[in-house]
């Protein structure tokens, strides 16, 4: 049973201009998406830059105002509570940012950085606070003496772990991770991903994993949503998306990912050209006249694709 | 391989940066050969010296705080010893570069047409009309459909992929023999990345240029490269033709890198992690195997005192002898789908 539901979430930014700087149009950054979160599962949100995936994360956690839609948490409507401090939702939903370096205050020691979420949400004595900080450092595999250091004294992977430690301080249920490993080198990325998987099984965490890297998302997530222009084009389990992609946009995205094998690369190049050609010719079957992604229609219990009802999806050489 | 194919021959190149009156070599004894009509990929993690290698070749470093020693032979001249004036003749006409971030590499106040024309103006004696024709031709060549519109636009009016296409057009304007591409697709989305990579290959087929591709993305390497050199801590630790390297990587560092990729077609398990961290430039031990601290469980006797590159099969070079103690069950490298 899901503990959190998002219904028809929309975030529109007004474009101002013209006479008296009035609102002339909107940017539809997120335009009606629905999600459900279950305990202990990882959800992936994939898309190109500017598709609204980060805005979705920000809107859920309350860093971005929601235009319309609702967020239900444990049966309670928290849509308007999110921006208030000291409620359960703010405590149990935490975030990891892409650039760990700029999300840590450079003038504070690690113990202050880690104490901040504890002071915000938990009422504990200074002694317990210190104990909790030591625990957190142990969880993320850092030595006790890191407490007195400053962020710049750590490497990129270590800083990202500090960011994770901060997110873990309040015993969250869901962690929104916005491109947590994009800025890291391959071997460091592997460390952080392994570690995120470990704490997931240890604490029964759920993740919303926002990334443009399909390889990473496939490695981490059970459930994947592909986003384009603020809407989902396809959502389903990992197997649904990777073995049975239906939307032309998903196919195009999958065909563009470099394969870690030089074998058959000419063949892949030819396939890419075919997929691209299909994409151009079949646009009208998958987008409406405003080039907006159609509503999701179910293919199976878990697999949803944005196609017009009645369009045969088997016809196009899938 | 006969020697007439060789475009660029780097021999024992050292590029050092000054930190408090001492020079520390970021590129430490690199020897490489770039041949005609070949894409040579340089792979490595951040800080391994791959970008420094590129800026040394094209002479873009700060002469006061850098020291370049060794040979970079191009057409019987040593680029490492050229003066700035002499270099300006070569740079842009015979060797050109594609940068990672096209927005900061393009002049925001100049129209696209002028920017492409600039290098033609400087390096060729074409007439104004001819230059304009060439600009249109170049833009079409890099897949921009309406050049007459784009030449009048400014960089900020173009999308990231279009800007990178313009960068490539500038780089190939004077038909250079060598193109250095420093992370040309890192800032782009995957769909645009694949288009740009396909474009690079197509252009190479037309011009027969040698391309030095610098990247950290092994997927990109697998898609386009002919030969690969893996760098670690300023040294080349493995060099091989692309198929060979992806099928039979020898050096423990290369193997670890492959195993830490979250692969599209592999089962989700734990990723491989390399112990320790990349040593910093100042604290780097300059003798012995540089990878030794990260495979610390091995005794010193498996490493060489002065590791050199050994040819293990034709064209496949590995540094140090420590790779021999590793026994792997199966060959790695992705499967074809």
Automatic annotation (TrEMBL), chain A:
Residues of the ABC transporter domain: 4-254
Organism the protein comes from: Lysinibacillus composti
GO biological process, one term: transmembrane transport
Listed name of the protein: ABC transporter ATP-binding protein
Matches recorded under CDD domains: ABC_NikE_OppD_transporters (cd03257)
Example of a GO MF term: ATP hydrolysis activity
UniProt family annotation: Belongs to the ABC transporter superfamily.
InterPro entries: AAA+_ATPase, ABC_transp_ATP-bind, ABC_transporter-like_ATP-bd, ABC_transporter-like_CS, Oligopep_ABC_C, P-loop_NTPase
Keywords annotated in UniProt: ATP-binding, Nucleotide-binding, Transport
Top-level taxonomic group: Bacteria
TrEMBL record, chain B:
SMART domains: AAA
Signal peptide range in chain numbering: none
Major subcellular site: membrane
Alphabetically ordered keywords of this record: ATP-binding, Cell membrane, Membrane, Nucleotide-binding, Transport
Homology family: Belongs to the ABC transporter superfamily.
Protein name in the entry: ABC transporter ATP-binding protein
Biological process per Gene Ontology, one example term: peptide transport
């Amino acid at each position: 049973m899901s503990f959190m539901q998002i219904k028809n979430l929309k975030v529109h930014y007004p474009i101002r201009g013209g006479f008296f700087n009035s609102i002339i149009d909107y940017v539809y950054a997120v335009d009606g998406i629905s999600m459900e979160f279950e305990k202990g599962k990882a959800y992936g949100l994939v898309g190109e830059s500017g598709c609204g995936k980060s805005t979705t994360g920000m809107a859920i956690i309350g860093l971005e105002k929601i235009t319309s839609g609702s967020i239900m948490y444990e049966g309670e409507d928290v849509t308007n509570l999110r921006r208030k401090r000291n409620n359960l939702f703010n405590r149990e939903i935490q975030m990891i940012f892409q650039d760990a370096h700029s999300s840590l205050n450079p003038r504070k020691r690690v113990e202050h950085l880690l104490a901040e979420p504890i002071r915000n949400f938990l009422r504990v004595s200074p002694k317990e606070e210190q104990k909790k900080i030591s625990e957190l450092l142990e969880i993320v595999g850092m030595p006790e003496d890191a407490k007195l250091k400053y962020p710049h004294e750590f490497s990129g992977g270590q800083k990202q772990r500090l960011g994770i430690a901060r997110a873990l301080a309040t015993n969250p249920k869901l962690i929104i991770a916005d491109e947590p490993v994009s800025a890291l080198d391959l071997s460091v990325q592997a460390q952080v991903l392994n570690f995120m998987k470990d704490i997931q099984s240890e604490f029964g965490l759920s993740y919303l994993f926002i990334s443009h890297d399909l390889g990473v998302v496939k490695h981490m997530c059970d459930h994947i949503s592909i986003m384009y222009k603020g809407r989902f084009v396809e959502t389903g389990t990992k197997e649904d998306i990777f073995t049975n992609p239906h939307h032309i946009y998903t196919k195009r995205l999958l065909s563009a990912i470099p394969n870690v094998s030089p074998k058959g690369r000419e063949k892949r190049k030819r396939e890419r050209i075919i997929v691209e050609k299909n994409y151009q010719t079949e646009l009208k079957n998958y987008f409406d006249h405003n080039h907006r992604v159609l509503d999701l229609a179910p293919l199976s219990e878990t697999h949803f694709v944005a196609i017009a009802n009645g369009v045969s999806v088997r016809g196009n050489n899938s | 391989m006969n020697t007439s194919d060789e475009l660029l021959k780097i021999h024992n190149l050292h590029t050092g940066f000054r930190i408090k009156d001492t020079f520390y070599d970021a590129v430490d004894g690199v020897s490489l050969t770039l041949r005609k009509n070949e894409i040579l990929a340089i792979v490595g993690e951040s800080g391994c010296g791959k970008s420094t290698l590129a800026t040394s070749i094209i002479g873009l470093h700060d002469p006061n705080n850098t020291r370049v020693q060794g040979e970079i032979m191009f057409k019987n001249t040593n680029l490492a010893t050229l003066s700035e004036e002499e270099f300006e003749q070569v740079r842009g006409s015979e060797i050109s570069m594609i940068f990672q971030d096209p927005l900061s590499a393009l002049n925001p106040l100049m129209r696209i047409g002028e920017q492409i024309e600039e290098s033609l103006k400087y390096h060729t004696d074409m007439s104004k009309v001819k230059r304009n024709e060439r600009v249109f031709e170049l833009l079409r060549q890099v897949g921009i459909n309406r050049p007459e519109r784009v030449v009048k636009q400014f960089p900020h009016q173009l999308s990231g992929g279009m800007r990178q296409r313009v960068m490539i057009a500038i780089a190939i304007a004077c038909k250079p023999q060598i193109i250095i591409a420093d992370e040309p697709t890192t800032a782009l989305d995957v769909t645009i990345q694949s288009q740009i990579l396909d474009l690079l290959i197509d252009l190479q087929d037309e011009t027969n240029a040698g391309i030095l591709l610098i990247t950290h993305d092994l997927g990109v390497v697998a898609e386009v490269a002919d030969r690969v050199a893996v760098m670690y801590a300023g040294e080349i630790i493995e060099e091989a033709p692309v198929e060979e390297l992806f099928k039979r990587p020898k050096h423990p560092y290369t193997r670890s890198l492959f195993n830490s990729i979250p692969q599209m077609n592999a089962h989700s398990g734990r990723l491989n992690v390399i112990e320790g961290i990349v040593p910093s430039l100042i604290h780097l031990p300059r003798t012995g195997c540089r990878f030794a601290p990260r495979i610390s469980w091995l005794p010193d006797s498996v490493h060489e005192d002065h590791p050199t590159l050994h040819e293990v099969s034709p064209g496949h070079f590995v540094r140090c002898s420590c790779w021999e103690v590793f026994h792997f069950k199966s060959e790695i490298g992705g499967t074809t789908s």
